[in-house]
Write a structure and sequence with these properties.
alpha+beta; 5 helices
Length: 196
């Protein structure tokens, strides 16, 4: 009889332990989200300060698709890795890091001395989502459009799944800079660039 009660007690403890573990898993933030909260500490500071944080390399490496493009940012007219182009732009003339609703972090900067070329990085720290955009004037050849082009990128979503909160912040940023975009393109984790 004592053995049977001990077995029941052990079974109840295992069940309780498993339920506790399951509850803690469901209450945890989305993968990668907890690792991005550090960005909120840069609110109101220079984008450059966040870009030079040692954690930023990991964020950028994870967020930017592995693709080589010519966007008019190299003297040699060669295609360069998109990650390199984004970093170069974000290390340029900085804007202040914005944090909206204690959740969405926006980093942006422009290329010095050509401030018409810009980069925008949007991070949803609650779900761990990172989406970026580059304003450029060349795409894959040496002919300038003389009108701004927009390349949106993310390794986590496709162009049909851009959250409204991202669209809202991107549109506000484009409006603040008085940018009338001539063409919208998107590149995802597959490295395929397409109009959207």
């Amino acid at each position: 009889m004592m053995g049977h009660k001990l077995d029941l007690f052990r079974a109840a403890m295992r069940a309780s332990l498993l339920l506790g573990c399951a509850a803690s898993l469901t209450a945890a933030p989305a993968p990668g989200a907890a690792g991005l909260m550090w960005l909120t500490s840069y609110a109101g500071r220079s984008t450059n300060s966040a870009v030079h944080d040692r954690r930023f390399d990991t964020l950028l490496n994870r967020a930017v698709p592995r693709v080589r493009l010519y966007l008019g940012l190299t003297k040699s007219h060669a295609r360069q890795p998109l990650e390199e182009a984004v970093r170069k732009l974000l290390e340029g003339r900085p804007e202040l890091v914005a944090v909206r609703q204690e959740r969405y972090v926006i980093l942006s900067a422009c290329r010095a001395p050509s401030c018409a070329e810009k980069s925008f990085l949007w991070v949803d720290t609650e779900v761990g989502l990172v989406i970026g955009a580059v304003v450029h004037y060349y795409f894959q050849d040496l002919r300038s459009t003389h009108r701004p082009l927009l390349l949106v990128f993310s390794n986590q979503i496709d162009s049909g799944n851009m959250p409204e909160s991202f669209r809202y912040d991107l549109n506000n940023w484009l409006t603040a800079h008085k940018l009338a975009i001539a063409a919208h393109r998107f590149v995802g984790s597959a490295g395929v660039v397409a109009h959207y």
